[in-house]
Amino acid sequence: MPASPSTARAINDRLALRLLQQQGPLTAAQLKQHTGLSRPTVADLVDRLAASGLIEVVGEAGAQRRGPNAKLYGIVADRAHLAALDVRTEGVSVLVSDLVGRVLGEASVPIGHDTGTGHAVEQAVALVERVAKEAGADRLHTVGIGAPGLIDPATGELRDSGGLPAWHRRLVAALQERLPAARVTVENETNLAALAEQRDGAARDRDTFVLLWLGIGTGAAVVLDGHLRRGASGGTGEIGFLPVPWTRGLPSATDCAGGFHSLASSAAIVELAGRHGLTAPASAEEPLGAGLVRAAAGSVSADGAEGPQGAGGGAGDGGAGGAGAFLDALADRVALGVASVVAVLDPGCVVLGGEVGRAGGTELAGRVEERIRRMAPLPTEVRAGVLGGAAVLRGALLTAREAAQEELFAPPDR
């Protein structure tokens, strides 16, 4: 049964808007080429979308061309403003953008472990309000939040998780109360990092892959056939609880000590580096473990051979030989988690994400891949993430954009 004229128009409008979202401004002729629609149909949908305030003329295709088809049409960027939050145990980062993802403001605030729940929530909410005001966003349409812990797949709410500050769960409700007109969504931080690496990072050519998060904590995100998999209780990827050798015991239902977390968290990496005589100065830009891995990787990759010290003097008395041995030992540990994922899911590609994954670069990823070739019968490429810790904010912004555009671009009769 053929679609009604109104349904056909709605389908065409959504198709054009999706193209403008993904590719940026296009001419009417380019819209015709990409959609396969007739020239009159494209002209009609351009007029209709412009009249509804969704698109506008943003320029011309080139100085050599004139006329209607030379006009470049783009999404009206200030039709909606969005906020993205990266909520960590030690603080929160916020950015505000327009509807096409252009960042208008960004800031962070540390929140100490001894900060009371109410005060911590107020600090985080006040930061969102301040960044939005400074960005000129009088009203936020959608707020996307990335947080550690489990997200209930039925309700979309952050569940109670052992070891996480109480203010994490309170923050979502507080933002909704202070920003009643905004749509507030929350997603696991590792899942958001995977979406960002797939859109803009190391997994752009993959619709099936696993992202292994290596930072202060550990986690994994599973993308199969283009879809993020969360599991029955939202716990897909809780790899920190994976039982592994070389630990002092087994993890419990409430404590991942003894699991993979005990081998690959930032604290475990710092301890491992110390055994190899490596030290690095503390940095506010990344976890100490990531700094040690970055220095070691820089040392062994310099001129294709190991130098006498870590990059920039970051490696201490262990020297370059210690740096290489440290990366080998870390790769042994990381490979345990990767091999388990490969044996169960056969993703074909594992991205080492988070601050440590990015810091290790190809030096760490190559070492892990070589071990996986020996440990697993399934061919698997191991790649270094390129977004690091910034992937969470980027993923939160992507989900906020998609949610806002889904609502704003919906057909009128839906």
UniProtKB/TrEMBL annotation:
<protein>
    <submittedName>
        <fullName>ROK family transcriptional regulator</fullName>
    </submittedName>
</protein>
<dbReference type="InterPro" id="IPR036388">
    <property type="entry name" value="WH-like_DNA-bd_sf"/>
</dbReference>
<dbReference type="Pfam" id="PF12802">
    <property type="entry name" value="MarR_2"/>
</dbReference>
<feature type="domain" description="HTH marR-type">
    <location>
        <begin position="16"/>
        <end position="66"/>
    </location>
</feature>
<dbReference type="InterPro" id="IPR043129">
    <property type="entry name" value="ATPase_NBD"/>
</dbReference>
<dbReference type="InterPro" id="IPR036390">
    <property type="entry name" value="WH_DNA-bd_sf"/>
</dbReference>
<dbReference type="InterPro" id="IPR000600">
    <property type="entry name" value="ROK"/>
</dbReference>
<dbReference type="Pfam" id="PF00480">
    <property type="entry name" value="ROK"/>
</dbReference>
<dbReference type="InterPro" id="IPR011991">
    <property type="entry name" value="ArsR-like_HTH"/>
</dbReference>
<dbReference type="GO" id="GO:0003700">
    <property type="term" value="F:DNA-binding transcription factor activity"/>
</dbReference>
<comment type="similarity">
    <text>Belongs to the ROK (NagC/XylR) family.</text>
</comment>
<dbReference type="InterPro" id="IPR000835">
    <property type="entry name" value="HTH_MarR-typ"/>
</dbReference>
